[in-house]
Specification:
Length: 341
């Protein structure tokens, strides 16, 4: 079991990582998501032992391994540039970690073959790295990391050099593979879709700090703060008021939804685009004007003006709507998130 406690890493006056504590779910995939420069790679390098923290500790199965050099941690690592040996065959690349660990030739070969089968590239074993595609190289990098049967798999943006379709394909493949192996994995990415679809658990970081951790659906539905709400998925965020007693939210543009609460608390409210529905007038919480309408294949994204606010709304009804058309909108109230303002 992997646990990090109060990790901190500074470069000069700048904190790359601070107060970073987490117990990683055993046998599961944890994704670390954050904007560029938020400290994701540094956090991973601290776990890998490639960098030393200024403060804090790394524990594996209850043992403090902060001072253990990376080559003695037995972690599998896959990075964005796969750092494969171009002049060696796929098989020899996969055997590399085993060779370094002094495994006998017969065992090396058998283990490499087994891992190549697992990553579905057995047929490429004799090819050189220069003779296979980018997606296949990624599989080789995976196989090389897995061949040593690592205690932990660390991945830093492993798919980001690939095109969108291949990325999606390999994402599904990774889920299958890591699910089968049940290996504890820490996966760094700046791609939300990747982080949500791969992660059993997610860590959202910003400016070196953890903003929130949890299952992807919980983070999406119940973001802990404005940063997470804005960063993860699309959202409508605005100043609102909540009834002190009932907690009911009064939206600034939905004057129809009841009288002003007696004792109002100022709050921020967030509504996802799919939590707003176009309905008939008698079912509506408010009316709005269509400012733009974008066809996105499986849905229509509308930009609506309601009072002083601009709202984005996603609708499965894909019939185009003319600009400046008045529409009626219902809010799925159970899906509103709020924070004190
Ligand atoms: P991310 O992976 O989220 O993009 P990084 O962990 O690479 O972020 O970087 C976090 C912060 O630390 C950034 O502001 C970056 O510029 C800084 N940083 C990272 N590595 C170094 C380094 N070797 N020297 C100085 N600053 C660094």
């Amino acid at each position: 079991m992997l646990e990090v406690r109060s990790l901190e890493k500074r470069y000069g006056a700048q904190h790359a990582v601070r107060d970073f504590s987490h117990r990683f779910a055993d046998g599961k995939i944890t994704t670390i998501l954050g904007p560029s420069g938020s400290g994701k790679s540094t956090a991973l390098a601290l776990i890998a032992g490639l960098k030393q923290p200024d403060r804090g500790t790394v524990h594996l199965d209850g043992r403090d391994i902060t001072a253990v050099p990376p080559e003695r941690r037995d972690f599998g690592m896959v990075f964005q540039n796969y750092s494969l040996f171009p002049h060696l065959s796929v098989q020899k690349n996969v055997e590399f970690g085993l060779r370094v660990r002094g495994a006998a030739a017969v065992e090396r070969s058998a283990r490499a073959r087994e891992t190549l089968a697992l990553t579905r590239i057995e047929h490429l074993a004799e090819r050189r790295i220069t003779e296979i595609s980018g997606g296949e190289q990624q599989r080789v990098a995976m196989a090389r990391a897995l061949a040593i049967r690592p205690a932990l798999l660390l991945m830093d943006e492993p798919l980001s050099a690939l095109d969108a379709k291949l990325r999606e394909e390999l994402r599904a493949e990774l889920l299958r593979l890591l699910g089968e192996l049940g290996i504890t994995t820490v996966y760094v990415t700046h791609d939300q879709t990747e982080a949500m679809s791969l992660g059993h658990e997610m860590i959202i970081v910003n400016e070196g700090r953890i903003e929130q951790t949890g299952a992807p659906i919980d983070l999406y539905q119940r973001p802990a703060n404005l940063f997470v709400a804005n960063f993860l998925g699309d959202s409508n965020v605005f100043a609102a008021e909540a009834d002190n007693r009932t907690g009911q939210v009064r939206l600034p543009f939905a004057s129809a939804n009841g009288s002003s609460p007696d004792s109002a608390l100022k709050c921020w409210a967030m509504i996802r685009p799919e939590a707003l529905e176009l309905v008939r007038q008698e079912e509506a919480d408010f009316s709005a004007i269509v400012e733009s309408s974008t066809f996105l294949g499986n849905r229509l994204r509308l930009c609506l003006r309601a009072g002083d606010e601009t709202l984005i709304v996603d609708t499965a009804n894909r019939t185009p709507i003319a600009l400046q058309t008045p529409v009626f909108v219902r809010v799925k109230k159970e899906e509103i998130s709020t924070w004190p303002r």
